[in-house]
Design brief:
alpha+beta; 2 domains; three-stranded antiparallel beta sheet; 6 strands; 35% strand
């Protein structure tokens, strides 16, 4: 029925990463599901997944990989554990380190 109205919807396969950057934040989606809808010459993208949200800050901005590496060095945890902690703390590095450093 949507095609009858000139609307085309399709999934984008094998998405590895989606990054949305604003002047103050960065949203990083790993392994997100992405759907694109085209109607009247306009494309709308839908992203399904849990982002890591990170504050951006001018000259002191670091990449997500650098943040993950830093936390891994500080806590001795694996990359997967660090990424999970960053998601749970909305990208707060200090909170992620504290969370991963707890003995329980």
């Amino acid at each position: 029925m949507m095609k009858r109205f000139g609307i085309n919807v399709k999934n984008i396969e094998n998405v590895e990463k989606v990054i949305i950057q604003t002047d103050t934040k960065e949203y990083v989606f790993d392994s997100a599901e992405v759907t694109v809808m085209e109607a009247q010459g306009q494309k709308t993208f839908q992203i399904i997944g849990e982002p890591i949200v990170k504050t951006r800050g001018g000259d002191n901005e670091t990449t997500l990989k650098e943040d993950i590496k830093l936390i891994m060095e500080q806590t001795g945890k694996s990359e997967a554990e660090v990424q999970k902690a960053l998601k749970e703390t909305n990208g707060d590095l200090a909170e992620a380190i504290l969370k991963l450093s707890k003995p329980y």
